Amino acid sequence: MTHPLLEALQVNEAQFIALRRRFHQQPEIGFEEHQTSSEVARLLGEWGYEVHRGLAGTGVVGTLRVGEGKKRLGLRADMDALPMQERSGKPWASQVEGRFHGCGHDGHTTTLLYAAEYLARTRQFTGTLQLIFQPAEELLYGGRVMVEDGLFDQFPCDAIFGLHNMPGQPLGKIGLRDGAMMASSDTLHIEVKGVGGHGAVPEHTVDATLVACHITLALQSIVSRNITPFERRW
């Protein structure tokens, strides 16, 4: 038996599949999501949301108030693509050189818009809904910039849910937890200082290149050979 919620969502399934593919064809990297954010704002406005733009430059917040409820719920998705070349050959592949929705943020944006349309159409809740469309999640800090620009001062939330696709998760299953859910991609800057000397007596020197190579191998082997990044160690 199909769940009533799924039946209600399937009414517009083709529309949102097409929307996701349009986003995929026109990817924009961090803080450059001008077309994407404009389309998000347009759709939210059509569905009756108060639309707020400008946080972190290209961020969008849609607000919907229903009934007299005092609770405020935030739902967040990211919009940016990666600076990569797509070679999938799909009919909806990226049409922008050096830009690719390789992490699925086109799907995240569409998923939140899908929810936005359903919630505005059914209004089966009471309270305030804040839909947060974040720029620059990849490699940059769009979420932090939105907060620094006053996101939660202007749009306070009693609870907030973010989402990310997770390859390997069984179809129809949702992973949920408080706090961090997935491993982050971080950058380390390490300076190795060697000690020079004569080539005839290398044992009197410190070869910075060799040391750096060993550091690289050791760090790389942490998550590939020693611990899983999905297991907390603190």
UniProtKB/TrEMBL annotation:
**Could you tell me the superkingdom of the organism this chain comes from?**
Bacteria
Q: Which UniProt keywords apply?
A: Hydrolase
Is Hydrolase given among the entry's keywords? yes
Q: Pfam families from the entry?
A: Peptidase_M20
Per its record, what are the GO molecular function terms?
hydrolase activity
Q: Does the keyword Manganese apply?
A: no
Under the heading InterPro entries, the entry gives: Amidohydrolase, Peptidase_M20
Q: What are its E.C. numbers?
A: 3.-.-.-
Q: What is this protein called?
A: Amidohydrolase family protein
